[in-house]
Design a protein that fits this description.
Blueprint (H helix, E strand, L loop, with lengths): L2 H14 L4 H8 L3 H9 L6 H11 L3 H5 L11 H12 L1 H4 L10 H18 L3
Length: about 120
């Protein structure tokens, strides 16, 4: 298991559960810098800690260790790619909520609309 893979999966499941690094620190009592290291990919916790985190996030420990390439939230790969772009844009990620079977063109339209709204909000 690579450090970056664990970091990616941890951030994914934190987001999926609407949790932050601070929530994890407060709930499980780990040091803030330790949790930050896990999320940045500079550290990987020991197995017993992974089990605690998995229980907190309501997933199996394996979900935090191995990414299942055949089990994606978005069925269509193009939809998944657009959704990831929206997710990675901090200004848009909170505004976004789509169905598993969303059409890629619909998702691209939502993405374009959200970007336009954010530009308008900023007076651009």
């Amino acid at each position: 298991m690579g450090k970056n893979q664990f970091a990616h999966l941890l951030k994914y499941y934190l987001s999926l559960n609407d949790k932050t690094q601070t929530d994890l620190v407060n709930a499980l009592g780990y040091d803030k810098s330790t949790v930050s290291g896990w999320c940045s990919g500079s550290r990987v916790p020991k197995l017993d800690v992974i089990i605690d985190i998995a229980n907190y996030l309501h997933v199996s420990p394996g979900d935090l260790i191995l990414e299942d390439d055949n089990n994606h939230y978005y069925i269509d790969p193009e939809t998944r790619e657009v959704a990831q772009a929206i997710y990675e844009n901090k200004d848009l990620s909170l505004l976004f909520n789509a169905a598993k079977d969303a059409d890629p063109e619909d998702l691209k339209t939502v993405h374009t609309m959200l970007l336009a709204l954010k530009r308008k909000e900023k007076g651009e």
